[in-house]
Amino acid sequence: MSDVEQDDGEDQELPDDSEPSPERQTELEKAYEANIAAGNPPYKGVRIRTRGELRWVMEKRQWFGGAFAGFQDANYVISVARPDLRGINLEDVHLPRIALARADLSGARLLHANLAGAHLLDADLSHADLQAANLQSARLQNANLTGALAMDANFSGAWLTAVDLAATNLRRARFDIDTALIGIHLDEWTQVADVLWNGVPLSQIEWRQIRELGDEHLARFPAPSTPAALKNCVEAARANRQLATALRSQGMADEADDFAYRARQMQRLVLRHQVFMQETEFHINPWYRLRKLMAYLGSGLLDLIAGYGYRPGRSLLAYIFIILTFAGLYLLNGQFAAPHLHWDEAVVLSVSSFHGRGFFTTDTHLGDTLARLAAAEAIVGLLVEITFIATFTQRFLSR
C-alpha cells in the first residue's frame, strides 16, 4: 500500500508509520482469523491504532489502495482484491494522505480520524461513522457516503464529485469556497441543519430535484407534540433558511425561494407543536397557547392565500374564487328578493363589493340580505388585500 506523497502543510502531528510489533501482529492476525471463522468481514470491530498498522494490514492481505504522483494525477492502480475494511475501527487514528481508493469502509468507525488529503476515490463509506473526522483536501470522487454519519466533519477543500450523500447526516459539517460539490446526490433523508457552507459553490447541484431536506422529512413524521418533535421542526426550519440564504448569495434566487417557502411551512409546524405541546415538567400558560394558536391560524391563511409571497398564483385563484362565490350568492338571493340580477350583473356587483365600492338600487335597504352580503364581501376583500400586501412586502424586504 502507498500513501499520497504530498505535504498538505496542515499536519502538526506526524503519523506513526512504524510497523507493529511481533506481538501486535499476532494479535491482529488472531482477530482476522476469528472474524473469518465467524463469517464476518476480516477486520470488523478491530481497533487500528496507527497508520503504520493499517499499512501493515493492507500489505499482509495484498490490498492496494492506489499509487498517486500527486493531486494532479488522476491515474491510479486498481488492485484485483478490493480492500475489505468493513466495520474496522479507525477512531482517532492519524491517517493524513492515506491512499484508500476503492476501499470498502462501509460501517467503519472513523470518529475524529484525520483523513486530511486522503485519496478515497470510489471508496464505499456507506453507514460509516465520520463524526468530527478531518477530511480537508480529501479526494472523494465517486465515493459512496449513503447513510454515513458526518456531523461536524471538516470537508474544507475536499473534492466531492459524483458523491452519493443519500441519507447522510451532514449536520454542522464544514465546507469552504475551495470545496468541490459537483454532481453530488442528495435525497429526502440528507440532513444539513447548521452546515457551515462558507461560500462553497452550490451551482453544480440539482436543487430542484430535492423535494425536501432530510431535516424537513424527519420533522413531518406524525408525532405527538413533544419537546423532541418541536426540536425537529425548529431545526428543519433553520436548515431551510440557512440553505436559502447560501443559494441566494450565489445568485440562485429561484432555488432559494423554494427553500425559503419550506422554511415558513416548517415554522408553522413549530407553532402547531407549541399550541398542542404536552405538559411534562412545566405548566404551559393558556394565554401562551392562545397566542400561538392565533399565529398558527394566521400563518395558515398566509400560506393559503399567497404561499407566504412565494406562490403568487394562489392570490389570483383566491380572488377569482371569492368573486365567483359571492356572485353566486347574489344570484341565489335574487331568486327570493329584489333586485333580480343577471349573472354578469352579479359579477360586477361582486367585484365592486370586494374592493369596497359596492352600489345598490334605490329599492335596496341596508338591512336587506343583498346589502349584508356586500358588506361581508367588502370585509373579506379588505382582509385579502391586507394579507396580500403584507405577505409580499415581508418577502421582498426580508431579503
Share of residues in helices: 40-55%
Strand order in space, largest sheet: 1-2
Q: Give the helices and strands as they follow along the chain.
A: HHEEHHHHHHH
Q: How much is the average pLDDT? A: 87
Find the structural class using helix and strand composition: mainly alpha
Radius of gyration: 31 Å
Most strands sheet: 2 strands, parallel
User: Low-confidence parts lasting 5 or more residues at pLDDT below 50?
Assistant: 5-10, 67-74
Number of DSSP strands? 2
* Beta-strand content bin: under 5%
Compute the number of helices: 9
**Spatial shape:** elongated
CA-to-CA gap between the ends?
Answer: 52 Å
Task: Describe the structure in your own words.
Residues 5-10 and 67-74 have low confidence and may be disordered. The longest helix has 29 residues, at 369-397. The chain has helices spanning 22-37, 51-60, 214-219, 227-249, 253-275, 286-306, 313-334, 343-354, 369-397, and strands at residues 159-161, 180-182. The protein is mainly alpha-helical and 399 residues long. Helix 5 (253-275) runs antiparallel to helix 6 (286-306), helix 7 (313-334) packs across helix 8 and helix 7 (313-334) packs antiparallel against helix 9 (369-397). Strands 1-2 form a two-stranded parallel sheet.
Can you give me a brief rundown of this structure?
The chain is built from nine helices and two strands, in the order H-H-E-E-H-H-H-H-H-H-H. It is mainly alpha-helical.
